Amino acid sequence: MSKYHYKDKFGGEPNLVADVTKTALMIFLKRMNTQYFAKALELREAVQKLLSYIPATFPHYTSHSVEHSDEIISQISQLLFKNQNSIKATVNLSPTEAYILIASAYLHDAGMVASDREKMEIIASERWKCWLSTEGPSKRFFEIEKLRNDLFVEESIRQFLADRQLRFLIGEFIRKEHHIRSTQILQQNQSELGRFAFDDPDLQRAISDVCLSHGLDYNELDTDRYPDRRTIRGELVNMRFFAILLRVGDLLDTVNDRACPLLINAASPLPADSFAHWSKYQRIVHRLTAPDRIEITARCKNQDEHRFLHDWFTWLVKELKNAAISIIRCQLHNNWKPPVAEISTSSHPGNINIFPADDALYIPMDWKFEFDTDLVFKRLISDVYDSQSAFLRELIQNALDATRCQVYIDLKNCSLTLPKYPTEISETIRNKYPINIKLYEQEFTNELSGVREIKQVLSVEDFGIGMTEEIIQKYLLQVGKSYYTTEDFLRNYHFHPTSQYGIGFLSVFGVSSKITLETYSPKKVGRPISLNLAGPRSYILVEKSDRNKNGTKITLVLDEPFETGDLEKIVRYWCKKVEFPIVLEDLGNQILITSEKPEDFIYEIPEIIEPYGKYSIRCFPIQASGLEGEIYVFAHSTSESESWADLNYAKNYIIDHPQAQIPTLPSDLTCIHGITIRHYNQLKNNCQLSIRVDFRDNSLKPSLSREKVRIPFRDENRLDPRIENRLVQILSDHLQTTSLASGNNEWIYKQRLIRNISFLEEFWNGIPRSIRMFLGGIPRLFSLKEIKSVEKIIAIVFPYEIENLKRRKFKLPEIAIPFNSLDSSVPVITEIDMELLSKEHNKAIFDNRVITNVSILPNGFLGVEWQLGISTIKLKDTIELAFFDSSDFFGAVLHKTSDTVYSQIVLNENNIFIQWLLNLKSMCESEDHGLSSRQFSHIIDLVEKVVRYNDYPELLNHLNNWRNMGEISDQLDSLQVCSNEREFYISGKKMIVLNKYMLLM
């Protein structure tokens, strides 16, 4: 049998151990109805088996076993019976009511049980994906995936730890939804749970609804589901009362058994927040539950425990205050008074006390943030939004969500399939639900001057679900709360709403001080309502309305008028991919605005210079789960091929012919649920294509103003995977069909594509035949991935004369590259080929490589050997050291290996002057002779000028100033440095520029 425990008022060991059947509530039930009592015991036994699986599935949870249910029954019993006397009930409780309370206590956590199959279904569900897109879970899931892919941790260990953390995350998701899951389990497992409802659907529904209530927000305890009077099995019951008692009883279970130290040790390692959730119960040293008052005393070890307990008991106090308000409105049991419970503060003693333990190091304070309500309203109305037209977008968004709800209701009533996203509903049906926007002029009397004046009036009307008085009070008038985030919405509708933050309606007060809201919801509790609002803090006037159609109409008398045509521009701008028609009446002109279509952007124009050439925009639809839209590609077609890399040429060739038309490419567009997001595009660079997409899931999280997008834990330059996959498919098909992507020069076209569509890094890395290398002088084509795996490559740097011809745009002579002087087994890339590569591939080839040798080849060529590895000595970002096969060479200018504007420089470790520089570097780093790294940085800058620009006089003058510096100047003197106007001498040898590298003559 179960036992419950509590400490005495001095915090000693438990002084009472009792069987749950000895509680006043169970004794009352046994006396009043033995059949109910027997069923309660039978149910307890069935639930005990069911709940025993919770620790096996989620070992980091506090106890949600049958003992927790026993304790709730004990707490409810102490709330309802004086001195635990079953005769002295504080309300006239019926046997059916007692049984509903007990059954709900046993079954309310049934949703915490989840089989492995159910967990797999959860991971595949949309609700899981939606939940993962929120900030907290998104961060934790990112960390789990980061751990799973951490190559520095052994494979089996990281997979074990990642799987364990994922189990914790799934557990958190189930905990969040377990009250909903409990109702589903009750419906599906009647026989396993002992026919707890006696096959009575009314009793089953009542118990199920009470179980659901313990996870709902207080505002969601609607009168439909939780009336104060309902007849069940011939007895009156108060559903609202049951919900109150279960919620309070659940919060009052703070016994030590719920935080067993042995269980904590067995479950470790566990999430830190779970440990705090567990350990907080261990700090309670006194508690009392009675019909008239609740007393709790806790002594905490640290701030986290204090904060958790304070939040927990604040929640309890709030529940009791809400209960007092709610019960007084009931007709049944309205004589019940919730017990007094107040948290002590420094200025006001209460009966719930949270103290630091004697050995605690923290100091509790009553400090908390306070809000200046007027200032906060001002910020939310005026400062959140970048655009003054944002109020119209907010009204349209609200109208769209309400319309979507109504469409789903109508589809359900017609027994039609409910699609996952509203855009999947046929256009014929959607066209029956227009959003009406009307701008007109009306004459008003100025309240100050009495003068008649003309004002513009704007109305936005939908034919959606409308609002009941309850919805208006709970959500419209509650800043920061949105109906579209409630459990009620999530249960009844499966699409992702646009409205989430509950502040959008405030934006109307930035443009109007005369607002009328007419709404009608055809529910049984609904009636037409008209609200008159003058501001967020003003008194709201409510009138009866004669509106007889479901939906909402919001009318604003505008403070400032729209300019002619502006309203249409604004609506078209925001509503690029809205799935419902918008009927706009703009000062008498009626305009129909619908979602954009590919035909709006597709065109074909002739190329004037090429006889059979043409420019066109190709459209490729994207149709993935939660994402819709198009990819538009600029194409240049000739009689022989089609190129997707000629947009820049097409924009500039018009200067060659007066009849040439300027081709255009659609701009990028990102929408969320059909509404434009101003400051977010999928593509961050100029390229050959545009992406216009509409996110219908919650993978993009808009900011509070909805004008920007927050992308936590993801590179902003990375495409959404669904777009990336579609684009990869499109490009793969193109490379298979265009003749430009075949033959000996196919790599050049592929590199042009990479240059223009560079963000598909992984795709381009594996594209075959995209880079030309030479083996034994014979050209071969490779992928970047293949080249990056090669241990050693050689880069051929051209002589200065050839570089000079290239810079002057002269025709290059036939170049005889000395391949015979190189190892035929090592891939060779030439400087000319490097200039045809995209900067991304050019950089990637040399990433994680170091120069190991520089060979002087015939006819002034350089052979630069690059080996896989990381440079140990780098004098500057673009200056490296390497061994030349001749000591005469000072250094050389190579090719570009990074995104910088400068080419790479390599200095010769085999050269006497460079050796002196390295000795100087060592002395500067160790600060010998009063030297510092600043002095070495300066001399390296001067050396770079010599190598890059043949500008050596400044270096020579600087070196002359190093005289009389002791050991370092002696070394310098041995070099016998001297100069004239055009020559630089070291050790009696003249240094000049030969080709692009320095040579000691």
UniProtKB/TrEMBL annotation:
Keywords from the UniProt entry: ATP-binding, Chaperone, Nucleotide-binding
Gene Ontology terms, MF aspect: ATP binding; ATP hydrolysis activity; ATP-dependent protein folding chaperone; unfolded protein binding
Domain HD-CE: 58-322
Entries under InterPro entries matching the protein: HATPase_C_sf, HD-CE, Hsp90_fam
The keyword Lipid biosynthesis belongs to this UniProt entry's keyword annotation: no
Keyword GTP-binding carried by entry: no
Similarity-based family: Belongs to the heat shock protein 90 family.
Protein name: Chaperone protein
Species: Acetonema longum DSM 6540
